[in-house]
Amino acid sequence: MLAKGARIQRFKSTSWMSSRTFLNLGRLTQNSELKGNGQQYVVRKTFHQPKSVVYSVISNVDKYHEFIPYCEASFINSRDSKGEPTEAGLTVGFKSFDETFLCTLECQKDKQVIAKSITHSLFHSLLTEWNVTEASSSKTNVELILSYEFKSDLYNQISALFATKVTSIMIKAFEKRAYTKHKQSCK
User: Fold this and answer.
1) pLDDT confidence of residue 178
2) Residue 41 and residue 127: Cα distance in Å, rounded?
3) Mean pLDDT of the chain
4) Is 158 helix (H, G, I), strand (E, B) or coil?
5) CA-CA distance, 95 to 134, in Å (whole number)?
6) Number of C-alpha atoms within 13 angstroms, CB side, residue 69?
7) For position 89, what pLDDT does the model report?
8) What pLDDT is recorded for position 79?
9) Low-confidence residues of the chain: pLDDT under 70
10) CA–CA separation, 180 vs 175, rounded Å?
11) Which of 57, 86, 96, 148 lies at a C-alpha separation of 20 to 30 Å from 103?
12) Cβ distance 117 to 103 under 8 Å?
């Protein structure tokens, strides 16, 4: 089931993927770490909250465990001089499986968050890119690009069956959190 209004595109990626962004008419995104079995998913959705609220929810990685399903722990290890996170991590668990991921973060305040995994026990690569642009004073266009490649071909095949659902669950969780945060700030 897809979040209402969300559009998910699936790309079996080699080294280049063309995608449309909100910032311009198009661009060529390179993810040279995908070795051939990598997958890329793009979700675009309009949230009914201001850009600053949406960006805050995305960049506050240390709060993810409070609202993302299967996220058991989340933390920020370091921040830059402006207070933006530069290294963060998550522990994700499901039944008897759990894995901790450490990522470098590149944050452009109220515009973009890019998280690149530096923990490679399960993945060849894992990259998450969030782009936020103002649609109006009370609405924000959100683009989530999720690129990954497991080390195991079996995991790559299995993940292809569930990735659209997982991506939909993620975008719903962020949208709900942005709604809650905006509602709290209006009180």
Assistant:
1) 98
2) 11
3) 84
4) helix
5) 39
6) 12
7) 97
8) 98
9) 1-36
10) 9
11) 96
12) yes
